[in-house]
Amino acid sequence: MTVQDTAAPTSRRKRSAEPETYDFRRPMTLAREHGRALEMAFETYARQWGTQLTSRLRVVAQVNLDTVEMRSYDEYVRSLPAMTTMVLCALDQGRSTSALQMPLDTTMVWIDYLLGGPGLSTGDSDRELTEIEWHLLKDLLQHALADLTYAFASVCPLDVTVRSVQYNPQFVQAVAASEPVIIASFDLNVAGKESSATMMMPADVLLAALEAGEELDNRSLEEVREQELAEARLAEQVHDVPVSVAVQFSPRVVPASEIADLQVGDLLTLRHRSDKPLDVVVGDVPLARAALGSNGSRLACLVVASEEKP
Asked: Could you give the CA distance from residue 310 to residue 250 in angstroms, rounded to a whole number?
């Protein structure tokens, strides 16, 4: 019995999961509305990119958005192959840097199409592009990236310019390693050849514009009119709501013992002067001053001053 009691915790310890590291410094999460806005923009761009490739390469090309996520730049770079085509672009008039990454094999196939070939790969995935090949690819991508301006019109103004190409992502410091970046992953299908591509943009460029847009009034004229009518109806109803109005003397503080000993016939003097108007109170808030009088057989008060006290 003792052996079983001792062995049970050991078995449980073996089944326990290994602890996972978590970076509490900067949680990389996108707000749902921001993520949806970026997905719609990247989906629009993917369709336009596919049209551009079909037109320029003269083969059927299709580009589909896979995922949009926010990670640190260091995590993004570590997820890329050691040797790949990484096109660096100037963003926001050169103040920021974005990147478009594609496999070298895909790049070589596109260049072969541009040169009039059947789209064959050289099979040498470790070779860098020649100067002529780079100029062909640069012209192709510059026309494709220009469509980002239209795709992101509802998010922020984007002006992307192809700047240079690198082949070892681990040695490219486009932004600070810990800075958050937006990563869009695309599935490419060019003449039946499937591959993938990723696009990196600094998160602060896109999210700052989205957060600023939340403060703008994006309602249509019809929506504005509907709200104004609703507010007018509410104001009309408020005027008809019954409220309790009281006319009060100035209060006096007395000991609890005096209140407990009150009997019929006792005289309780007030601190209210006979020439001082009474307080007209609504919900414990003094709104006016009134003089005490009568109206026929009923007591009444005549408002002599309006003095609202918040």
From this structure: 18
Question: For 216-255, what is each residue's pLDDT tens digit?
Answer: 455 667 877 888 899 888 888 888 888 888 888 888 888 8
SS3 154: coil
Q: Same structural domain for residues 58 and 188?
A: yes
The DSSP string of 178-202 is: TSEEEEEEEEEEETTEEEEEEEEEE
Between CA 225 and CA 223 the distance in angstroms is 5
Q: Report residue 128: phi and psi, to 5°.
A: -80, 160
- What is the DSSP secondary-structure string of 238-269? HHT----EEEEPPP----HHHHHT--TT----
Domain membership of residue 250 (yes or no) is no
- Say if residue 25 is in the same domain as residue 120: yes
Question: Dihedrals φ, ψ of 183, to 5°?
Answer: -115, 120
Q: What are phi and psi of 146, to 5 degrees?
A: -65, -25
Whole-angstrom distance, CA of residue 71 vs CA of residue 203: 9
Q: Which residue range(s) make up the domain with 132? A: 21-213
pTM score, two decimals?
A: 0.61
The amino acid present at 213, given as its one-letter code, is G
CA distances from 81 to 85, 86, 186, 210, 267 (A): 9, 10, 16, 32, 96
157-175 b/e (C-beta count within 10 Å ≥ 16 → b): ebebebeebbbebeebebb
Two structure tokens written together for 28: 């990389």
- The number of distinct structural domains making up the chain is 2
Q: What are phi and psi of 270, to 5 degrees?
A: -105, 160
pLDDT tens profile 247-303: 888 888 888 888 888 888 888 787 777 778 888 888 778 888 888 888 888 888 888
